[in-house]
Amino acid sequence: MTRPTIDHDTWILVADGQKALFLRNDGDDELRNFTVCRVEEQDNPPTRDQGADRPGRMGDAGSAHRSAVADTDWHQLAEDRFAKDLGEMLYKMAHKNRFQKLVIVAPPRILGELRHELHKEVLDRVVGEVPKTLTNHPIDRIETLLGD
């Protein structure tokens, strides 16, 4: 994987399924200086804390046995919804010309989910993708990790 070029005024979205940092590079590609423009967070406890009932059971055809039915993964659904919300935010920002270049940093699964939610106007501005989880790192550490 090649390191994305992060020029002056390039925006960097650092996201996972619960938190998103919208950063802007006020420096250049060699001497980065990321500034936080916006932070979005959602409360998304584990599925075990969100489910109300035990998983359902279903009778097997032709026998007296009953099988468990898989429970809904509420945590996963909330992460997918968050990716959709981020896609809408990015579209509104791109439509207002808030950024011309965008680098997206997210875990591989969230990156894939987010890619499905991005409008063509946003996709045309994506100059790089980094499949990493960096949301809980300090900004100076994110600058360094994206340079390596």
First-residue to last-residue Cα separation:
11 Å
Q: What is the 3D shape?
A: elongated
CATH homologous superfamily annotation:
eRF1 domain 2
Strand numbers in spatial order across the main sheet: 3-2-1-6-7
CATH topology (fold) name:
Nucleotidyltransferase, domain 5
How large is the count of helical segments?
5
* Number of E-state strands: 7
Structural class: alpha/beta
- Percent of residues in helices comes to 25-40%
Mean pLDDT: 84
CATH class: Alpha Beta
Question: Beta-strand percentage?
Answer: 15-25%
Q: What's the domain count?
A: 1
Please compute the radius of gyration using only Cα atoms: 19 Å
- Biggest sheet architecture: 5 strands, mixed
Order of helices and strands: EEEHEEHEHHEH
CATH architecture: 2-Layer Sandwich
Give start-end ranges of low-pLDDT stretches: none
Question: In words, what does this structure look like?
Answer:
The chain has 148 residues and is an alpha/beta fold. The chain has a single domain (11-43, 71-147), classed as eRF1 domain 2 (Nucleotidyltransferase, domain 5, 2-Layer Sandwich). It is built from five helices and seven strands; from the N terminus they run βββαββαβααβα. The protein has a five-stranded mixed beta sheet, with helices on both faces. It has a two-stranded antiparallel sheet with strand order 4-5. The model has no long low-confidence stretch (mean pLDDT 84).
